[in-house]
Specification:
The strands form two sheets. Strands 1, 2, 5 and 8 form a four-stranded mixed sheet that branches. A four-stranded antiparallel sheet has the order 4-3-6-7, with no helix packed on it. The chain is built from one helix and eight strands; from the N terminus they run αββββββββ. With about 130 residues, it is of the alpha+beta class. About 20% of the residues lie in helices and about 45% in strands. It has two domains: about 1-30; about 35-125, Immunoglobulin-like (Sandwich).
Length: about 130
């Protein structure tokens, strides 16, 4: 029955190891979801992109802006901290010619923001 104690310890170790692996696989590495609004001259940006580039080490996140809103899920989000943000805004492409490139609604806008967990981001591009 000496082996029963060793077997229990080994099973406990295997169970702990499995829990550690599952927890690591589900981890978001400290990333946060990014939700926000982007306006130009106090009107929602019809179509555009928003890019978050960390001022320190980290990953960049890019998302489409549609009707003034964007959302980046936690899985693809960024870690809290300081970011350089680039906003590009476009006029909607004509429906009858989807291959036509949309015209810029305003010059590219760059700013710096602090990303905080669960805090909506609001950017107003000045005219």
């Amino acid at each position: 029955m000496k082996h029963d104690g060793r077997l229990k310890r080994m099973l406990s170790f295997v169970a702990l190891f499995a829990v550690t692996i599952v927890t690591s696989a589900c981890s978001n590495d400290g990333k946060t979801q990014l939700i926000g609004e982007v306006t130009y001259d106090n009107q929602p940006v019809a179509l555009g992109t928003i890019t978050f580039t960390p001022k320190a080490d980290g990953f960049r996140a890019i998302q489409t802006i549609k009707d003034g809103k964007f959302e980046i899920p936690e899985k693809f989000g960024v870690q809290p901290g300081e970011y350089n943000v680039l906003v590009e805004g476009y006029e909607s492409a004509p429906q009858d010619d989807p291959d036509q490139v949309a015209e810029k609604a305003f010059p590219d806008y760059a700013t710096t923001i602090s990303v905080e967990p669960n805090k909506p981001i609001v950017i107003n591009v000045p005219k």
